[in-house]
Specification:
The complex is a heterodimer of chains A (388) and B (343). By secondary structure, chain A is mainly alpha-helical. Chain A has 19 helices and six strands. Helices cover 65% and strands 5% of the residues of chain A. The longest helix of chain A has 27 residues. Chain B has a two-stranded antiparallel ribbon. Chain B: InterPro entries: ABC_transp_permease, BCAA_transport_permease.
Chain lengths: 388, 343
């Protein structure tokens, strides 16, 4: 709604250029959840889980395989919400197995052994013909005809389907609100992400979470105080894997297909790392903002088709004379724009990332918190109440 | 167990025993051994620079794969420029070594700039930040190369095919070594790899600067107290490591299994990590031994994939399994010590 208000305002053309569209926002939500789960283990305990994509991939493949009847006992029509929870549990079991050997190591070695495990899985899935006829490209949902839906299973009115083609749309909700399929997907996926966020938030602020921070700050002292840090780390790893798998399941449920490159590959973990650093390492909500920032930059700089983005904006608003001006050695402005903007957002994301590492080590949310002197919500509430 | 499944098992087992017999025949063992050495040469070259940088500076350089990839493109370009028309195999080989030297120099320059401009600011932060920073550098370098490749239309146009065509013809042919015949390229890779290892070894143990580097990695504070600018030594080592990565890239350019492409960055980075960790982070001797182990495992599993086991990812999976098993059994690696690096 805010989106449409801004787009219809006098600076509409500029707003279309800057704002991401709803479909991008869905990506922001589920990948943001994955980035949060990465931050949950890496940002709070200080153990860099460089193979976190293994759990995201487990969740994504679990949903697709179950929908194709490839997982024993589970039928193709199992409600999506159950699939998400089961995928989460499967990933948690996997995390306990991986963690049991990995947490004997720390620092660079921990990062490398988790990377090793996830690459073994990635390489294995890439050639395992059980998952689909062409495992290198990844499987798609073929058997299941009904759409994936989020809500209370069995109660149709509380159950809304998600997906680009098969999703539900709503006409005249509360008399005046209408949502298309993408908007319904956006709100329903958002709901799951929100629930997961609150759950993780609750855990972080419990005594269990305090021990995790103690481990990050000084593991020897935490141990000396009497905590068995191994079990705390293992528990946190399993919880984190659970939510990573839920994020992967949402991704698979929305896209209805997965590939090894977009799920198990180590650069997927790299993206979560990117989001966490930009958003704020060790702030649970930060990675979501970090990924929003990243996607916004990517979309702003690289979208060549219709809709927003800097490239079409420049093409439309720069005159023909400007576009054909020669810059250097036969390179015109138009060509330069094409060369440096069309599909090369990674470059600018990389530059921003490096600048963040060098100059804003606390990330977006961390820095805002430092300025305000505490979590944003609490500070804003305090200011509003006037008790400064 | 039903009779049918028992029979299937017996047949599978018989096939396996048969394949094992094949594998153990001298000519097969010998060719797997030579293949393994050639692969070891490649692994030691892509991991050598990484271990140098970690050994002295304690920086795990994520941009190492990107530097190898840039080396592959630069080496290819230089050879295309230098060779041009048709020339004899001797001239081509000479051009290769000139391109190798030029790539080394250019990449060393790039490494120096990265160290002075970026990494130097992070020495007093936790080591994780150096991983993060070099990860960001990788993103930037890969995308810059992608822009350049697209802009100059290097791939997949026929221009770039010229770079692959610069390989002297005798490297594509097989050499008869009595019992087995080996591809000329494998022998060439073994020679270049061995020469690089020998060169680095001599530099580190026989020259004065190598002595300073080793002193700096043992005890940076004491070295500083002796009046040596350790910061400058860091820059030199980082440049050296990047240069070696470039040399590795140039070698990969000619190998049909690797070639020059942007994903080469990730494809070389991970094996390099595996080799460096198996050998023990920062020990040059360990890296050489680990490269031989990984190369032999690669060659062996490739043989099994070609002849018996129908699973294309078998060699790659074995490499990562070795990494995981090594980290479980002996986290510090073959020749590693618990505490390494530091500044």
């Amino acid at each position: 709604m805010l989106h449409s208000a801004l787009v219809n305002s006098p600076v509409g053309a500029e707003m279309v250029t800057v704002l991401p569209d709803v479909e991008t926002m869905i990506t922001v939500l589920y990948f943001g959840l994955f980035a949060m789960s990465f931050d949950f283990i890496s940002g709070y305990t200080g153990y860099l889980s460089f193979g976190h994509a293994a759990f995201y991939g487990t969740g994504a493949y679990f949903v697709v395989l179950a929908s194709n009847g490839k997982i024993p006992v589970l039928g193709t029509g199992t409600p999506f919400v159950y699939l998400l929870i089961l995928a989460g549990l499967a990933a948690a079991v996997l995390a306990v197995l991986i963690g049991a050997v990995s947490f004997r190591l720390s620092g660079v070695y921990f990062a490398m052994i988790t990377l090793g495990f996830s690459q073994v899985l990635y390489v294995f899935v890439r050639d395992w013909d059980y998952v689909g006829s062409n495992p290198r490209d990844g499987p798609a949902v073929l058997e299941r005809t009904e759409p994936f839906s989020v809500g209370v299973p069995g109660v149709d009115s509380l159950d809304l389907a998600i997906g680009q083609l098969a999703g539900d749309s709503i006409e005249g909700f509360l008399g005046f609100l209408s949502f298309g399929t993408t908007e319904v997907s956006y709100y329903m996926i958002g709901l799951v992400v929100l629930v997961c966020y609150f759950a993780m938030q609750r855990i972080i602020h419990s005594p269990f979470g305090k021990v995790l921070v103690a481990i990050r700050e000084n593991e020897e002292r935490a141990e000396a105080v009497g905590y068995n840090t191994f079990w705390y780390k293992l528990g946190a790893f399993a919880i984190s894997a659970f939510f990573a798998a839920v994020a992967g399941g949402l991704f698979a449920g929305f896209q209805r297909s997965v590939s090894p490159e977009s799920s198990f590959y180590f650069l997927v973990t790299g993206d979560a790392l990117l989001a966490s650093i930009i958003g704020g390492f060790g702030t649970l909500a930060g990675p979501l903002y970090g990924w929003l920032f990243d996607e916004t930059v990517t979309e702003f700089l690289s979208k060549a088709g219709e809709g927003g983005g800097l490239l079409p904006y420049l093409r439309d608003h720069l005159g023909e004379a400007t576009m054909t001006t020669e810059l250097y050695n036969g390179l015109t402005v138009g060509q330069a724009i094409d060369t440096f903007l069309n599909g090369h957002a990674e470059l600018y994301v990389g530059v921003i990332f490096v600048l963040f590492v060098l100059f804003v080590p606390n990330g977006l949310l961390g820095t805002v918190r430092d300025r305000l002197g505490g979590p944003v919500g609490k500070q804003v509430a305090a200011r509003l109440r006037g008790d400064e | 167990m039903t009779l049918a499944s028992t029979l299937v098992n017996v047949v599978v087992l018989a096939g396996f025993v048969d394949a094992l017999g094949q594998f153990l025949r001298p000519e097969n063992l010998a060719s797997v051994f030579v293949d393994g050495l050639a692969k070891a040469a490649i692994y030691v070259m892509i991991a050598g620079g990484l271990t140098l940088i970690f050994g002295l500076m304690g920086v795990l350089n994520f941009a190492h794969g990107s530097m190898t990839m840039i080396g592959a493109y630069l080496g290819g370009l230089l050879m295309v420029f230098a060779i041009g028309g048709s020339t004899g195999p001797g001239v081509r080989l000479l051009t290769f070594f000139l391109a190798l030297a030029a790539t080394f120099a250019l990449l060393a320059g790039l490494g120096g700039v990265v160290e002075v401009g970026l990494i130097r600011r992070l020495y007093d932060r936790p080591p994780v930040y150096q991983i993060l920073l070099t990860f960001g550098v990788t993103l930037i370098l890969d995308e810059l190369v992608r822009i350049a490749v697209l802009f100059y239309g290097m791939q997949p146009t026929s221009d770039w095919q010229a770079a692959l065509g610069t390989k002297p013809s005798f490297l594509a042919e097989s050499v008869d070594l009595g019992l087995i015949s080996v591809s000329g390229l494998s022998l060439f890779e073994i020679v270049v790899g061995a020469a690089t290892v020998a060169g680095l070894w001599a530099f580190l143990t026989r020259t004065r600067y190598g002595l300073i580097i080793r002193a700096g990695s043992e005890d940076a504070e004491m070295t500083e107290a002796l009046g040596i600018d350790v910061r400058r030594v860091f820059t030199v080592v980082f440049a050296l490591g990047a240069g070696v990565a470039g040399v590795a890239g140039t070698l990969l350019m000619w190998d049909p299994a690797w070639g020059a492409s942007v994903p080469l960055a990730a494809d070389t980075l991970l094996p390099a990590f595996v080799v460096v960790i198996i050998g023990g982070l920062g020990t040059f001797r360990g890296t050489v031994v680990a490269a031989v182990i990984v190369g032999m495992a690669d060659a062996t599993t490739t043989w099994w994939f070609v002849n018996e086991i129908d699973f294309a990812s078998l060699p790659e999976m074995t490499i990562f399994l070795i990494l995981v098993v090594m980290l479980i059994l002996r986290p510090q690696g073959l020749f590693g010590v618990e505490e390494v690096g530091g500044h």
